[in-house]
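A.,

Following up on our hallway conversation. C-alpha cells first:
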C-alpha cells in the first residue's frame, strides 16, 4: 500500500504500460510499436519532412486503435484518486491517448502531446481537436497559411511540453509514483532522481524499469490489478 497523508503532494507519471490492458500496444515490449515501425521513419521531424503521408498513416492507425480502446481499472483508479486529492495530485503522462480523461481525470499533463489533436507545422495556430484519419490516397491536410497539418505529438528530437509546470510539481511533491514506463526516455526517466531526498518514490509495473535503482519501493504487477487497492489516504 502507498500511505498518503493529508499533507502529501503526489506526482504520478504514467507510461504506455497503463494503457496496455486497454489493448493499446506499448513501445518496447512484445508487440511494441517500435518492434514493427522505425522511429526515424514515423516519429521525427526528419520523417515528417521526408514523407508526411507515411507519418500520417502511422498516426491514423494509432488514432483508430486508441479510439476503439476503453479506460481500464488503472485509469479509473487514478481518476478516483484525483477526485480525492484534488490539486494535491499532479498527473503527468507520456501517453498520447485520452484514456485518463475518458476515465474521468480532469487535469492531465500530456508531456508528449495528444493523439487527438493536430497542429500546423508552419504557423503558430494553436493545436486543435482532430480525430480524423489521413491515410493514402488522402492528401496531407493543409492549413490556410499553406503549411501542412501534423499530429500534435512530441517527436524524437523535439522538446516535450509543459516542462516548467512539471519541474515545479517535482520540486513540491512528497510522493512520486511512476506507472508502466520502461524508464529509458529522457527527460521523464530522470524525474524520479529529481525528487530524491524529498519524496518517497514508487514504481508500479510487471517488469523492473531501467531506472529501478532510483525508486524506494517497487510494486510488481499490472496497473489494472494493483492501482484500485494501492492507495491508503489519511
Ligand atoms: N501495467 C503496468 N505496466 C505495464 C503493463 C501493465 N499492464 N504492461 C506493460 N507494462 C510496462 C512494461 O513492463 C514497460 O516497462 O510498461 C512499460 C512500457 O514501456 P515502453 O513501451 O518503453 O513505454 P514508455 O516507457 O511509456 O515509453 C516512453 O518512449 O517512444 C517514446 O514517446 C514514446 O511516450 C513514449 C516514451
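Then the amino acids I'd put at each of the 234 positions:
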Amino acid at each position: 500500500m502507498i500511505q498518503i497523508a493529508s499533507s502529501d503532494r503526489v506526482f504520478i507519471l504514467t507510461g504506455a504500460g497503463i494503457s496496455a490492458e486497454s489493448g493499446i500496444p506499448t513501445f518496447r515490449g512484445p508487440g511494441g510499436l517500435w518492434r514493427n515501425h522505425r522511429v526515424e521513419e514515423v516519429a521525427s521531424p526528419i520523417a515528417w519532412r521526408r514523407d508526411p503521408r507515411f507519418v500520417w498513416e502511422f498516426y491514423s492507425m494509432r488514432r483508430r486503435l486508441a479510439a476503439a480502446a476503453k479506460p481500464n481499472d488503472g485509469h479509473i483508479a487514478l481518476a478516483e484518486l484525483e477526485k480525492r486529492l484534488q490539486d494535491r495530485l499532479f498527473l503527468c503522462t507520456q501517453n498520447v491517448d485520452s484514456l485518463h480523461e475518458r476515465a474521468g481525470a480532469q487535469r492531465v499533463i500530456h508531456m508528449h502531446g495528444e493523439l487527438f489533436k493536430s497542429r500546423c507545422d508552419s504557423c503558430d495556430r494553436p493545436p486543435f481537436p482532430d480525430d480524423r484519419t489521413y491515410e493514402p490516397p488522402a492528401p496531407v491536410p493543409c492549413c490556410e497559411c499553406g503549411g501542412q497539418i501534423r499530429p500534435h505529438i512530441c517527436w524524437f528530437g523535439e522538446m516535450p511540453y509543459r516542462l516548467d509546470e512539471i519541474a515545479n510539481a517535482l520540486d513540491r511533491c512528497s510522493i512520486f509514483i511512476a506507472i508502466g514506463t520502461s524508464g529509458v526516455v529522457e527527460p521523464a526517466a530522470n524525474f524520479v532522481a529529481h525528487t530524491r531526498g524529498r519524496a518517497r518514490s514508487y514504481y508500479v509495473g510487471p517488469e523492473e524499469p531501467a531506472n529501478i535503482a532510483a525508486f524506494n519501493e517497487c510494486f510488481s504487477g499490472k496497473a489494472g490489478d494493483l492501482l484500485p487497492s494501492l492507495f491508503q489516504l489519511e
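The pocket of adenosine-5-diphosphoribose is lined by residues 15-18, 20-21, 26-29, 32, 94, 112, 180-182, 185, 205-207, 209, 222-223 (CB under 6 Å). Curious whether your intuition agrees with the design.

B.
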